[in-house]
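Subject: for your reference before the review

Hello V.,

The reviewers asked for a structural picture of the protein, and I figured it would be easier to keep everything in one thread rather than splitting it across files. Below is the amino acid sequence we used in the manuscript, unchanged from the supplementary table.
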Amino acid sequence: MSEHLKLGNRGEDWACEHLRGQGYEIVCRNYRYGRAEIDIIARKEKLLIFVEVKTRTNLSHGEPEAAVSRGKIGRLRKAAEQYIYATDWLHDVRFDVIAISVAGERHIEHIEDAFW
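And here is what came back from the structure prediction:
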């Protein structure tokens, strides 16, 4: 496995730990639909949260959350719509981004309602 994939997997593990620590239940990881992948699907009470995780070892190319492009958002929305339909989810949903920087000490930023 390449180094960037290993880093991405570690970032998702850290994001899951963070979410669990905040009282979220992890429902699914790496949900795929077409060309899209939702890194984490979590739940807190009657709220379903679709989480995109971005992890960076240095910030020379910008903050991790800046890597969530319009195209990525569109693919995430379609995958989320499919998941909602497939599971017959009838409550609220939210899209979050968890940005992780491991340039020096690890820093996790949880951006709620990052986009719709």
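For the response letter, the relevant points are probably these. The chain has two helices and five strands. The first helix runs from residue 3 to 21.

Happy to draft the paragraph if you're swamped.

O.
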